[in-house]
Every structure is written in structure tokens, then in C-alpha cells.
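Minutes, project check-in

Agenda point 3 was the complex the collaborators sent over. CS summarized: four entities, 1205 residues total, and the question is how they sit relative to each other. Sequences were read into the notes so everyone works from the same version.
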Amino acid sequence: MSDIAAGNEHHHHHPFLQHHFEDLGQQHEASTLGMWMFLCTEILFFGGILCAYWIYRVMYPEAWALAAHQQNTLYGGINTIVLIISSLTMALAVRAAQLGSRTWQLIMLFATLIFGSIFLVVKGIEYSMHWHEGLFPGSHFTWHEHPALANKVQLFMCFYWGMTGLHALHMVIGAGLLLWIIGRSWRNDFGPEYYAPVEIMGLYWHFVDIVWIFLFPFLYLIHGVHHG
Amino acid sequence: MTTATLHDVRLSGASTSRNYINDEYGALSWLLTKDHKRIAILYLLSISVLFVLGGFFAMMMRIELLTPAGDLLTSDTYNKFFTLHGVVMIFFFLIPAIPAVLGNFLLPIQLGAKDLAFPKINLLSWYLYMAAAIIGLVVIVTGGVDTGWTFYTPFSTQYSNTHVFGTTFAAFIAGFSSILTGLNFIVTIHRMRAPGLTWYRLPLFVWALYATSVVMLLATPVLAITLTMLMVERTIGVGFFDPSLGGDPLLYQHMFWFYSHPAVYIMILPAMGVASDVVAAFTRKKIFGYRFVAFSSLAIAFLGFLVWAHHMFVAGISVYSALIFAFLSFFVAVPSAIKVFNWTATLYRASVSWQTPMLYILGFIGLFTIGGVTGLFLASLGLDIHVTDTYFVVAHFHYVMVGGTVMAYLAGIHYWWPKITGRMYPEWWARLAALLVFVGFNLTFFPQFILGYLGMPRRYHAYAPEFQVLNVLSTAGASVLAVGYVLPIIYLVWSIWFGRPAGPNPWGAVGLEWTTASPPPKENFHETPVVTWDAYDYPAMMKAMGETQNV
Amino acid sequence: MMVADFPLWPDQASSFAKDVDNLYIFLIILCGAVSVGVFLTIFYFAIKFRRRPDNEIAQDYEPPKLLEVMWIAVPSVIFMGLFVWGSWLYFHLARVPDDALDIYATGKQWMWKFQHPSGQREINALHVPVNRPVKITMASEDVIHSLFFPYFRTKADVLPNRYRTMWFQATKTGRYHIFCAEYCGTLHSGMIGWVEVMEPADYQKWLAGGTEGSMASQGEQLFQKYACNTCHTNDATGRGPVLAGLYGKDITLSNDTVVKADDNYIRESILNPQAKTAKGFQPIMPTFQGQVSEDDLMKLLAYVKSIGPAATTKGTPQ
Amino acid sequence: MADTHHEQLEHAPHSHVTGLGVYFAVFFALAIGTLLTWYASTIDLGMWNTPVALIIATIKAVLVILFFMHVIHSTRLTWVVVVASFLWLGVLFVLTFADYLTRGWAMK
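CS then shared the predicted structure for the full assembly.
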């Protein structure tokens, strides 16, 4: 027992070790585990609306294909690539932190922020186009191409705006967090011993990327439009 | 080593000078605290206020229902009161009550940790809870909401003229508070256990909180997205569940109950954990079938996710899926039965003390059993058609939620009150209150089973005259119950100043929380404890006590 | 009302009331025994083994582990039995007899509207003959309601935009409650009525009282009023499918899937015709969404049914 | 001594540094997957269009989770958390669809 008491006194007092943890290892494990738990709730959060989306997709396949056909595949595709690049730069930023390179950390974090912003700008352009085309659900919704399916196309657009909107909101939050991480990185807070915040930031960013990996085919690429 | 450590159970913590309460002073030291114990106190205060508010709505309803005609309140007011009763009691009392108050206070101590894994997030949980509560209060003051706590569409999205958005937003925020609490607990249990504290040495309260947290984490996000979709639909006028677009209101119900059925287990699982700890302490015995009880918590958490559509047997789901859900619903009762039988078996050849916490738990076991077996009526498909949406359901879930959760919450408050405040409550008054709660509860809710079978539907402001006798009985019971609830508030507050000092271990109970001072020091333990004994190892402790002549 | 002084269940006024009550009574006995057993056992143990000076420490006794197996296995077996019993009843309630009398119900905030095939309409009251299966086809005009007949032990939620059916066979003449069991707004508790179970002869007499013609014939008039008959002609020359003999048949759609021409298909084809166009026809029919009330929809449905195959192949109901 | 109390826990941050090659390989796989899923949507695969899109998206997601999010080098507990979230999502989908897909079944 005295052995243990002695052990407890031998903390290496790292400035970012919180008082209630035994050591940085425990702290790192706890925080990444916490982030994974949070992502688990995010999976079920997006999963809920996805489930609803799929129920209706199975009920109204024609309307779903027709509505997806209205989306701009080029913009969606560009955004997918942009987001994948940003995921790569994020992963490289974590690697730079692990290896203790402040310069590469900052470069990669900035790159991530820039690609994330490009994504949001493209998304904004798409939104404004849809808005002017009258594809926002509600009293101003306009649809003439196939009037019998108008209601269900509107239902699809609810999901389009809802799902991409939630995703974009996550992107905005992610960009804010990136700014904060960049600030800390600038102060040279991170190194091989302590990089949990960068890693957690990365987990979040990759998760947002994964959501888009699913949203792109679900909302833009539904095969099967029969023009009758 | 065993004896040495158990020896400490009686001796350590004698120094009461510095503790978490008097460590710092001033309002800010409480509002900005990261100490899990202080946050638990913040929760205790806010939850108590909301419990009284929810109770007020209940009492007004019971008074209205004295007569068949709707004469005291208008229909709209009555509808708002039952909605607010449900919203306040479920989202602001039952879900956070045991985890956020007792769990927050005790989990780190029972684990031998200095705090939860994420103290700042813990404080954030409380602020989110308060934000939600304040939005809820604003809604109440500015006119309320009348959709029922279930917010069924299309009534909530297109027909109600009340504050649906504000209320669902409040529930949404409260959900985040609950998610963060669950997350914090799981990480803490995995990563912050004291040396030697293996999984099978954990108190069953910890197991129960673990199972609860899993449900919080996996179910609450689906509520969040469902309410988000509802809020969007309410705001832009069309949306996801809108029948005129081809949307299906039953889809809302599916998604809502995917959360709200498991939420029932968020409310009852911690209560079962309290019951296990209290039964062990007041029988001085290890819980019979410890591992069965521990794993039955996890089994409930898992099976609880597979049964949600039993709320929808008459709603228009397919007959075949109703069969699946009914089948699974029966089996969620098995782990609950395991617990009840194991608690009962623990009493055999025990040393049963009739102190207040045990009184509540004895009541809990009986009432929870009634609540559980009446669930079988509702799982039996053909019978459910008749009794669903009637007072039978109301009685059933009050037996589980009030007879179960609230009784266990009161048991836990009394059991750990000496630890939390360092003072004993007055035993005689406490026993009287326990008796009043038990009698008042049964008088209130038992008649409602009969009312339900007679066909009185839920949420009725005015009712057919032949239902009056039973309703009067129920209201009479509610007033007894109200007295039973007011008494503890009075004597517990009284005891903070005038109660007998408790000492570290007034019950002679085993558990890390009883090895530290009452109230505990800010860091919980002066040095990290090393655990070498099993949970509820009373024989070993009694032996240690005998050896030190310190009875 | 034949309410005893202190009844424990309502009168058994339908063919399955007795079945439901039997399961109820069985469960009361079973669950009562379990609950009372648990209560008595805990209090017996709590008193017998109460803490006394010679009993400060619990005896070091572990009951046999076999108990655990027992109280997992025994409830499981009982639950299987209950599941089968309850499901048997549920299927019984879900399976509508072929010869049932058709009645149409509309729920709206806050009243019940019923229409009889012969054309009678009533609000918050329903007249039915005794000892004859009655099938109710229901829809809501606004929010979700639930049509509840406690004396018949049955209820079903009434949904907007979708037909549902329920059935019962009243076995006792008399006057029984109708409740709305799904909360639907301000006057939810006022959305109540009476079902009057009559001798068949009395029911016929009641039916003979003033009417604007049968539902089917009113439907036929609407069929002409909305000019449906210009396309849905009686021979295969029209621009729309022939409706005679159509009801209940399988239909191949333009995308080659097959659907059954049931109540909900007819309903959707009127309100949103291009959603499921029959194969070989152009999607040219205009939508009638918002133009036909729920009541009129039901009349049109009754008309399509009346010219369905059942009208020619099946004999008159007993 | 301080580190022996935590069964699954090593004391230093588990600092497995993934090689640059792996990151770039995953990136190219993701990019190719994106092009592939776009291409697949332009041709008629009969009933296979939806499954193909789903399979490609799932593979991409798994790659991100395993390599970018380092799950492949993480503790068992992390695996459990990841698998559990998808399992529960599966419960939501399967049981909800159990209702919708059987609504049309006739009563015998």
C-alpha cells in the first residue's frame, strides 16, 4: 500500500494534466473514448433522419429518383472530393502533432479549414439556386414538371434541406473548433505527449466527412427517372 | 490487507473540518464549480423545484376529476396541465432524478475516483438542464402547451395553437444534458475505477448507472432528431410527417418511441440500482445472484430497444410487426423479474433493518412488481386493444414510475442523506412519510386500473358519471400522497441544521462511499483507495468490526 | 344503463368481449398471485429475519443457484403462453368476416360521423343490428383519433389520409359508449357518442327512415357530378380503366408492380391518380385532392365497391 | 505502479503514428470510390443501382473509420463503441421496416 502511495507522488506534472486523472495516458484514453461516445450519439442522430428518409424512399421510389435528379451532381461531386481532401489534411495534422511538428500541424489545420470553407461556399451556392428555383418546402414551393409527384418531391426536399442543413451546421461548428485548435497549435500546446485535442478534432471532422459520403449518393445519385 | 482496509471503514473520515460544502464560499463557487458533489446539489435543488411544479399540475388535475363535468378548469387548461405534468415529470424529473443527483454525487465516490472524467462537461449538463427548464418555465408562463408529452403529429405540427416549438426545444436541450451525463458516466466507469476495483466488485448501483448511460447515449439522439424534424415541420408548415405530402404520422410515433420506450428504462434502471444498494445495506448481506442482477441491467438496456412499437398496437402498424414487438415485449419482463426475485431471496436469513430507506425499498419491490405484471396485460395483444389509451395504462406506468422510480429516489435520498449533508434525518417522521407515500400512492392509482378496464380513456377532462366513485377515491389518495411528499421536504431541510451528526458510516454499510467522511472532502478521498473486497462483503466487514471492537 | 353498483368490467356486449375478459381474468389471477406472493414473502422475511441483537450479522447463507434458472425459465414459458393467447385474440380482431355490414366512419375535431350503406348519416351516434358482424371503414379529416367501443372491447386509431378498418359483432341490444381514445385537442373528452344495438327488425325500420338514397347510389351521383364516367366508361373504350369488377382485384401498374385494388388504393387513385397508374393507361387523370370531402370519398368508394366482383359473385349476406 | 490499476490501459498516449503512404492510399481509394459511385448512378444496373451505391459508400466509410480515425489501432472498447452504434442503428432500421414492409401483407 505504501508502494502505491509512493507511486502516486511520482506524477510528471504536465501543464495539461487535469487534477483528477492519474496520468496523461488515462486522460488521453478518457477523452478519445468520450469523443467516440459522442460520435456514437451523432450516428444515431443522423441515423434517425436517414431511417425516415429510407422509409419514404421505399414508399415513393419514383418521386425520390425524380427529385434527386434535380440536384446538381457536379457541385455535389466537387464537394465530396473537397471534403475528402480536407479529411486527408486533418489526418495529416494529427500526424504532425504526434510527431511534434508545429509547422506542419499549422499548415494542415489551415488547409483543412480552407477546404471546409470551400465546401460551405459551394453548398451555399447550391442552396441559393434551390431557393430561387422554388425548391424550398413550404408555401413558396413550386414544381411543375410532374404535378402528380409534386407533394412527394416536396417531401424529398424536406429531407434534402434537413439533412444537408444539419450536415452544414456540423461543418460550421467544426470550422469554429478548428479555429480554436489552430490557436492552441499556434501557442505550441501540442506534442507527442499531449495531442488529444487535435485527435478529437480529427475524429469529429472525419465523422462529418462520413456523413457526407452517405448523403451524396442518397440525395444526388438515385437512379431510375422515367420521363413519361 | 483486507482487514486493514475494512478497518478503515470505521475509522477514517473522522476529521470533518474540511469538506466539499465548506471548502469554498459564495454563489460563484457553486455556480462555477466542477466538483461532481456540488453539481449534484445543484441538480437536487433544481429537480426538487420542478418536481413540486409537476406535482402541482397533477393535483389540479385530480381536483378537476372529482366531478364528471369539466367544471374547475377549462378544457384547454386541463389539456395543458396534463401535458405539462408529463413534460415536467418525465424530462425534468424522472430522467435526471436518480442519475444526475444520486449518480453524480456517488458514482465517482463509489469508484474511488476524485471526480467524473469530464467535470466541465458535467457542469455544462446542469446548465443545459437549467436552460431547458427555463425555456419550459417561459412556455408555461406564456400560455403552455396542449399536445400531450408525446407531441403526436399532425396535431402538434399543424393543429395545436400552443407553444409546441418552445416545449419541444426544451425537451431537445434537456436531451443533450442527459446525453452528456450518460457519456460522462460511461467514460468514468471505464477509465476511473480505483485500483483493485474490478467490474464484479462494483456496487450494483454503478452497474445500473452504466446500463442507464448506455440507453441515454443510444436512444436520446433519436429523440433529438425526431424533435428537430417536428420543429422544422411546425416552423415551415410542411414537413417530414405531413400526411398531405404523403408523410406518415406513424413514422413520427416509431421514431418517438424508439427513444421514449427506452427512456422508461432510463427512469427505472437507476431506481433498481438504488434498490440493490439499499437492500444489501439494510440486510447486511451480499445481493443474492449479484451477477444475474448486474447483467439483468444490461439485458434490460438492450431488450428495451426492441419493444417500442407496443405503444402502437392500435395505431395502424402491420399486424405482423405487432406480433414481433409483442413477443419481444414479454421478454423484457424476464430480467426485471430476475431482479425482483433476487432482492426477495436476499432477505432470506438476512438481518433486516426497518429503517426508512429499507421501508421505501420494500414498498418499491412490491409496487414495481405490480407495475411490471400489469405490463403483461398491455403486451398481450388482444387485451391491449381494449386497455391501451385508457386509465389502465395511466395506472400501469405510474406504478412503475412513481411506485418504482420515485420510491427508490426517496429511498436513495434518505440512504445517502447522511453522506451528502453529514446529518441524520428524523427517523420517526421519515417512517411516517414513507407510510403515507405508500398508502396514498396505492389509493391514488389502484382505482385507475379498474377505471381503465371500465373504459375511461386517458386525457379526459370530463367523463361519464359512472366513473365518479373511483375518481373520487383516486383524488383522495392523491392528497395523502401529497402530504407524504411534502413531509420529507420539510424534515430534510430541517435536518441540515438540526439533524444529529451522522459520522462516516451511520448504517454500518459496506462501500467506498462509507469509507470517507460525511460530508466527503473535496477530493473525495485523502488518498486513492485500494479495493480488495467484493461489493457488499458484509461478513468480512462484520469480522473486521468484531476484531476492532468498534460496533 | 345496466351498470351494477360497483362494476369491475363493463358489460360483455360483443362476440369477443368474453374472450378478452377471459384473458383479463386469467392475468388478474396469475399476476395477482405473483404480486401478493412477492408482497407476503418480502414482509414475512423482513419480519422473521429482522435485525435483533442476536442477528446483527446476516447468516452466511446462499440460496441454491438453481433458483436463478427456475425464475428465468418459468416466467419465460408462461410468457410464451400469454403471447400465443394474446396474439390469437389480436388476429381474431384483425380478421374481418366477409359478410360484415359495411359502415363508414369519419373522425374530425370533435365529432364522429357515421354513414350507412343505405345512405343514413348520423353524428356521434351509431345504430347497428345485433348478432351481425359490422365492419367500420374509417378515416380522419384532421388529426389522429381513436374509435373506442369499451363494451365491445375494441378500438382502433383513425388516421388522416389513410383508411383503416375494424369490426365487431354486438351480442346484446342496448346503448353503449363510444369514446375517442387518442388525444385530439380541446374537446377530446367531448368526442363521445352512443352506439345503439338494435334487433334486426328494428334496425331495418330505423334504416327506412328518411334518406337521400344509398351510399353507393349517392356515390354514383358523385361519379357523374365529378364527370368520372366520361373516362371510366363501362366498356374498354374509355381513357381510364373500367371500374366494374375492379375492387379487390390485383392491378398491374405502369411500372410493372402489382397492387391490390383495396380501399386505400381507390382512395389514393382519386386523390393522387398519377402515383399508381394502371398499366396501359396514360397518367392523365387530374387530382381530386382537396376537392372531395372525406364523406364523399367514402361514398365514391362505396360505389366502386358496389360494382365490384363481390356484387355479382357473392350471394347476399346472411 | 500508477499504471497497473487500469486493466486495459497503457500509460503513455497510444502513439501509433500511421505512415504517410497509408493516408494517401486511403485518400485515393476514397476519391476513386466517389467517381465510381457517380459513374454507377449514370448506368442502369436494374435492381442493383441502390445496393451498389450503398456498398461503395459503406466501404468508403469503413476506410475513413479504420485509418483516418485510427480505429484499427484503437482499444477493443473503441471497436465496441463503433460497432454498437451501427448495431443500434440497425435495430432502428430493421424494426421500423418490419412494420412498413409487412403492412401490405394480406390477412388470411
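Noted in discussion: Chain A touches chain D through 64 residues (CB under 8 Å).
Follow-up: revisit at the next meeting once the mutant set is ready.
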